[in-house]
Amino acid sequence: xxxxxxxxxxxxxxxxxxxxxxxxxxxxxxxxxxxxxxxxxxxxxxxxxxxxxxxxxxxxxxxxxxxxxxxxxxxxxxxxxxxxxxxxxxxxxxxxxxxxxxxxxxxxxxxxxxxxxxxxxxxxxxxxxxxxxxxxxxxxxxxxxxxxxxxxxxxxxxxxxxxxxxxxxxxxxxxxxxxxxxxxxxxxxxxxxxxxxxxxxxxxxxxxxxxxxxxxxxxxxxxxxxxxxxxxxxxxxxxxxxxxxxxxxxxxxxxxxxxxxxxxxxxxxxxxxxxxxxxxxxxxxxxxxxxxxxxxxxxxxxxxxxxxxxxxxxxxxxxxxxxxxxxxxxxxxxxxxxxxxxxxxxxxxxxxxxxxxxxxxxxxxxxxxxxxxxxxxxxxxxxxxxxxxxxxxxxxxxxxxxxxxxxxxxxxxxxxx
Length: 417
What we know:
Helix content is 28%, strand content 21%. By secondary structure, it is an alpha/beta fold. It folds into 2 domains: 2-55 and 364-415, Urease, subunit C, domain 1, CATH 2.30.40; 58-357, TIM Barrel (Alpha-Beta Barrel), CATH 3.20.20. A hairpin with a 2-residue loop joins strand 2 (22-28) and strand 3. The chain is globular and about 65 Å long.
């Protein structure tokens, strides 16, 4: 496939020669052949000349759920990757949120094979323990060799501290990355939203910030003892940011992410008991949001994630207490980050994180494989049901104003434009 991008403004902070320059980009058979002020379109070339066209390295998301196998009614791998590509993502890390869970090398191979031939690459997580039951370690080494980029019992606390200790020690033999969900199930109890003024007023059972912070503090103590690589996904409190900042000052090999919706919404959004706002970790306070944004700006928080979790209507259209946790996030990722951070920092956030998963970061220059995202950073719109490409429709962003929109991607010699 041959493609010519016309008058594309390049947003690539790591490339001083091209950053914020308007250029034509010629791509032949998936390789960037030429970048110049003006290029004549060769024969048999698809011309891409879009309004306010901007281009960057392909975007990366470290936390996405689909459903297949077992929950295809929520989302299939094929349509999920289509959604990701239209949302601007060339690479996604897939949560082990399936039935059965991927706890063997053959499960990981299945996920990889189902994703072949798409413009978006799928990088599966394997579970940390067999059946994600938190008792015995799964086949970590075999899954790593099959393509698993890290290990995670999806949204479940590792209740046994010795199990985390053993996992961190064992994974060092093959440079494995261990996830630990930041929520103490005993402190959480039957809580479903952030414990505070809003939960009290609405009569909803609360989850104290302590549930997250106590778990993180424990895990960091274990990491300091064992060494190894620990990732803490989707932190949500101001104190969590401080704990991780202190751990990094000690030299611990820890990384963390934050869900984009925890940067946009607070627990004030719960007033209407809309189950689209029921997520794990829960929406917190305005003070927490400010601390999370500051943590991203100063580098304490390593990267953002859409924490995209499709839930079918039967899982959401029930009493708030009984609704499943999760919101869509891929389609709204760029448009909700852009107003907070601006174009350049938003692109930096969306293109970082691959190295943590031992993945190669693409390079935007002649002779390199084209791994590109095309977007318009200035388009303003309110997000509607018609904008949702996912099979499920559980988005807390419905009706929210967004600034910026992805056109699609060019990757693997394929395009979603």
